[in-house]
Specification:
Elements: E1 11-12, E2 18-23, H1 40-52, E3 56-61, H2 64-71, H3 73-77, H4 82-101, E4 108-113, H5 115-119, H6 121-136, E5 140-145, H7 158-169, E6 174-179, E7 200-201, H8 206-209, H9 224-236, E8 240-245, H10 249-255, E9 259-260, E10 262-265, H11 271-281, E11 288-291, H12 293-302, E12 311-315, E13 323-330, E14 333-341, H13 346-352, H14 360-364, E15 378-380
Parallel strand pairs: 2-3, 2-6, 3-5, 4-5, 6-8, 7-10, 11-13
Antiparallel strand pairs: 1-9, 8-10, 11-12, 13-14, 14-15
């Protein structure tokens, strides 16, 4: 395997304020079973230094099944069945969160998701709101696949892809994937010792995927190919992906100084451009939110969020999380001016129309935030 010093061939990391760090089972599993702090400690120190520098980090961590095997070894003997793996995951979740909590003085929050949670627009909004609130409260969210109830999601490399989806969910600037290899090589370095590390991937084409091999770990569920698939998902959202060796302490230490020994996979377009493109072209639900001239001016001239005070009403029967059009109604008639993800259903929008944001909970009995559509979820037409 290539043994070049991490002090050589360093490159600068992309500027970032918010990141997702994905940690695979191969970095957490102990040789004799269970979980080991050996490599997790260095990664935790990187997270801590990043937070102290004013940045935000969400960890997507594998390792629950590996932890469960140590608690109930007999279950591992029959671990080929889906039910057995789900049972092991349930046993190991507490151990996994306990491992991360031991490294941080701040509270560690467990967030269990399935891919279906993030495909469903209403649950997508709920998950994003929860993660953003956890970050605002100064906690460290640790996300994992909800393996106990998942079926199709327990497949090769699911947490790599989950990490990419979470990165897009929270509008991260970069996705860090810690693995047990230095990055992407021109060929498998375990079988081709002379293979060279690829420092930068400008575009994820077929020739790049051809470089990827299979899984190199007995405890993980993902190989390099799934990491490239995750990078493609993150790149579509305008997020760069960084692959690095989480077993090499000196490599992890350099990350804290914004220097990378590994592979940087560049996004196809900027994060803002990618999100605006999605908002502009995502399918829209029947119906619309009607607004007055003042709200239209604030949206167009100030880049503001849509507040209930400028809302006149709603057409159709859309639900919370649906993509809907924003229609200006004035003396000249009606015309489409924007589209976005509504934080409230059509029924709720009608009830809070014209009210102040502070009155939402009093009117509805609950509150999903003071915006009908947040400016990050809105694009002008």
């Amino acid at each position: 395997m290539n043994t070049a010093s991490p002090l050589e061939n360093l490159q600068s990391l992309p500027a970032w304020r918010r990141a997702v760090l994905k940690v695979g089972s191969s970095l957490l599993a102990a040789d004799g079973g269970g979980l080991s702090p050996r490599f997790a400690l260095g990664l935790a120190q990187f997270v801590s230094s990043s937070i102290l520098a004013g940045r935000e980090v969400v960890i997507v961590s594998s390792g629950a099944v590996a932890a469960g095997r140590a608690i109930l070894p007999k279950a591992a003997e029959a671990g080929a069945t889906m039910a057995a793996r789900q049972a092991l995951a349930a046993l190991g979740q507490a151990q996994l969160i306990g491992l991360w909590q031991r490294f941080f003085e701040r509270p560690v929050a467990q967030v269990l998701l399935t891919h279906d949670d993030l495909r469903n627009r209403r649950r997508y909004l709920n998950a994003r709101a929860t993660l953003n609130e956890l970050l605002a409260l100064g906690t460290l969210p640790v996300v994992n696949e909800n393996d106990t109830v998942s079926v199709d999601e327990l497949k090769l490399g699911d947490n790599d892809n989950l990490a990419a989806i979470v990165a897009a969910l929270i509008d991260a600037d970069v996705l860090f994937i810690a693995t047990d290899i230095d990055g992407l090589y021109e060929a498998n370095p375990r079988t081709h010792p002379a293979a060279k590390l690829v420092p930068v991937v400008a575009e994820l084409g077929a020739e790049v995927f051809a470089m990827a091999g299979g899984s190199g770990s007995a405890v993980g569920t993902g190989g390099m190919r799934t990491k490239l698939e995750a990078a493609a998902k993150a790149g579509a959202a305008g997020i760069d992906t960084v692959l690095f060796n989480g077993r090499r302490a000196e490599v992890v230490r350099e990350l804290a100084h914004d220097r990378l020994h590994g592979t940087r996979i560049r996004a196809a377009r900027s994060r803002i451009a990618a999100r605006k493109y999605w908002l502009r072209h995502a399918p829209v639900e029947p119906g619309a939110i009607l607004v007055d001239a003042g709200a239209a001016a604030a949206l167009a001239g100030k880049g503001a969020s849509l507040l209930p005070g400028g809302v006149l009403g709603a057409e159709g029967e859309f639900r919370r999380g649906d993509m809907v059009e924003v229609v200006l109604r004035d003396g000249a008639g009606e015309r489409r001016i924007a589209r976005g993800l509504s934080q409230y259903s059509a029924v709720d929008v009608r009830r809070i129309a014209g009210r102040h944001s502070r009155d939402i909970e009093a009117v509805l009995g609950y509150n999903y935030g003071g915006n009908v559509i947040h400016r990050d979820d809105l694009v002008l037409l």
